[in-house]
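for the recovery benchmark. C-alpha cells below, seq after
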C-alpha cells in the first residue's frame, strides 16, 4: 500500500487506476490521483493544531478560518467530530485517527487506504467507523482496509486478500471464505485457526495470585490524554494475576502512567513496587528510537538510573539472548528498530521490560496492530510473567482480548472505575453505561 501511495517505488509491474496506467512516484502524485492513506502510525505534527495538520502539503496562503470551516463541514458529513483549533498533542489516539481520515477526505480522496483503523478504538467507536466506511463506499469511493482482525474482514469487506511472506496467497469474495480459511492462509497451516491461538495461553495452568503489589487508595488523576479527570480511584493488583482495563477514548492512559511511575496523582495514595515494566501504546514514538539498533534500544531500559560507563559488551550479549528467547525476527542486534515489523517491535519492547523480572508490568494496548500469531506470542509472554509472580495490568481496546487474557476486568467510565464480569457483552454495556447491574462489588 505504500507503493500505491507513492511512498516506495515499485521494482516492476504496473499500477492501474480505473483501468489506466498510473505513475505514482510520490505521495503528491498519489493524492493528485485521488488516493488517500491513513497509516497505522500517524503522520501528524503534535505541536500544530488540527486545522494546521490538515493544510500541511497544501498550496497558497494558510487561512485558519477557511480551514476550520472545511473541517467542521467534513465532521458534520462523516460524524468524525474534531475541534479544528485543538493541538494534536492534546488528542487521544482515537482522535488522531479521526484527524488522519479527515486529512485524506479534505484532499478529495476517492480511494482511501486504511491501515488498522480500528486498532485503537473501543467497540462502539469501531462500529461507528465501519458505518462511516460503508457510507463512503456507497457515495462512490473505494476503501482498502488493512486489518489483522479477521472478524472485521469477514463482517465489513466485500473482497478479501491475504499476503504472507511477500506473496498473495488468497484473494476471494468474502462470501466464499470462512474465519478458519482466512486464519489458515495467514498462518500457512491447515491445522491452525485464529481463536485457538488466542486462547492457548488462557488454558495454561495458573498460580494462585498473591499479595497486592499495586494499590491505589482514593487516587485522583489529572487529565492529560484522557477525556476527563479520574477521581477517588481504589485499585489492587496482586502478584501473579492479570487485570485488564476497558476504557473509551484514551481514558486509561493517565491512570496507567501514574501506576507505571511516569506521572504523579493529584490526590490520594499510590503504592507501587520499585521494579515496574512499562509497555506504552505507541511503540514507535514512546517505546523505541527507530534509528537506534536493537541493542541500543535495549540499553534504554532504566535510562537515567545508571551511573558510570555503559557495559556495551554485556548489553549486546543480553540482546542476543533476548532475540532468541522472544523470537524477535532480526538478522543481528545491530538491526535498527524501525526496520522491524510491528510484531517484532512489540516483542522487543516487551523483552526489554521483562528482562529484569519486574514485580509489576503495565501495558497499554499490548497487541495493537499485530497479527494473530504475534498476538498469541504476546499473550503467552504475559501469562508466563504472571506465572512467575509478576502483577500484570493492561488496557485493551479489544473486548475479546480482555475476555481471553485477563483474570479480572475493570471498566473506566465517567471518571470512575468498576470491576465487571469477564463477559464481552457485559464489558461493552458497562463501557456505554447501559448495564449498571453488571458491576461486581469489590
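predicted aa per position
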Amino acid at each position: 500500500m505504500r507503493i500505491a501511495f507513492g511512498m516506495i517505488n515499485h521494482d516492476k509491474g504496473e499500477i492501474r487506476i480505473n483501468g489506466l496506467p498510473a505513475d505514482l512516484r510520490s505521495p503528491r502524485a498519489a493524492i493528485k490521483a485521488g488516493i488517500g492513506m491513513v497509516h497505522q502510525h500517524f503522520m501528524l505534527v503534535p505541536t500544530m493544531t488540527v486545522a494546521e495538520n490538515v493544510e500541511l502539503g497544501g498550496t497558497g496562503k494558510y487561512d485558519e478560518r477557511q480551514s476550520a470551516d472545511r473541517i467542521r463541514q467534513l465532521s458534520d458529513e462523516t460524524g468524525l467530530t474534531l475541534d479544528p483549533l485543538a493541538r494534536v498533542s492534546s488528542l487521544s489516539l482515537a482522535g488522531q485517527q479521526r484527524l488522519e481520515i479527515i486529512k485524506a477526505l479534505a484532499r478529495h480522496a476517492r480511494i482511501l487506504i486504511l491501515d488498522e483503523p480500528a486498532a485503537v478504538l473501543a467497540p462502539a467507536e469501531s462500529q461507528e467507523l465501519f458505518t462511516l466506511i460503508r457510507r463512503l463506499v456507497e457515495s462512490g469511493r473505494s476503501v482498502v482496509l488493512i486489518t489483522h482482525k479477521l472478524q472485521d474482514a469477514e463482517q465489513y469487506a466485500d473482497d478479501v486478500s491475504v499476503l504472507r511472506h511477500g506473496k498473495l496467497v488468497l484473494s476471494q469474495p468474502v462470501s466464499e471464505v470462512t474465519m478458519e480459511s482466512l486464519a489458515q492462509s495467514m498462518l500457512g497451516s491447515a491445522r491452525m485457526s485464529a481463536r485457538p491461538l488466542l486462547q492457548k495461553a488462557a488454558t495454561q495452568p495458573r498460580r494462585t495470585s498473591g499479595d497486592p503489589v499495586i494499590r491505589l487508595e482514593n487516587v485522583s488523576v489529572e487529565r492529560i490524554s484522557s477525556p476527563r479527570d479520574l477521581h477517588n480511584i481504589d485499585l489492587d493488583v496482586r502478584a501473579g494475576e492479570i487485570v485488564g482495563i476497558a476504557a473509551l477514548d484514551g481514558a486509561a492512559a493517565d491512570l496507567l502512567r501514574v501506576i507505571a511511575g511516569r506521572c504523579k496523582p493529584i490526590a490520594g495514595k499510590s503504592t507501587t513496587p520499585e521494579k515496574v515494566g512499562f509497555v506504552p501504546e505507541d511503540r514507535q514514538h514512546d517505546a523505541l528510537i527507530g534509528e537506534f539498533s536493537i541493542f541500543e534500544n535495549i540499553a534504554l531500559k532504566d535510562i537515567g538510573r545508571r551511573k558510570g560507563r555503559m557495559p556495551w559488551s554485556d548489553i549486546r550479549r543480553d540482546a542476543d539472548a533476548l532475540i532468541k528467547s522472544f523470537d524477535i525476527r532480526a538478522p543481528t542486534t545491530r538491526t535498527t528498530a524501525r526496520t522491524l515489523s510491528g510484531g517484532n517491535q512489540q516483542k522487543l519492547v516487551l523483552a526489554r521490560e521483562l528482562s529484569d523480572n519486574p514485580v509489576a508490568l503495565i501495558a497499554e494496548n499490548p497487541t495493537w496492530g499485530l497479527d494473530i500469531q504475534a498476538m498469541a506470542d504476546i499473550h503467552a509472554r504475559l501469562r508466563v510473567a504472571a506465572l512467575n509472580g509478576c502483577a500484570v495490568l493492561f488496557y485493551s481496546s479489544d473486548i475479546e482480548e480482555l475476555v481471553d487474557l485477563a483474570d479480572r476486568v475493570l471498566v473506566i467510565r465517567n471518571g470512575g472505575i468498576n470491576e465487571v464480569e469477564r463477559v464481552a457483552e457485559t464489558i461493552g454495556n458497562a463501557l456505554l453505561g447501559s448495564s449498571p447491574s453488571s458491576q461486581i462489588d469489590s
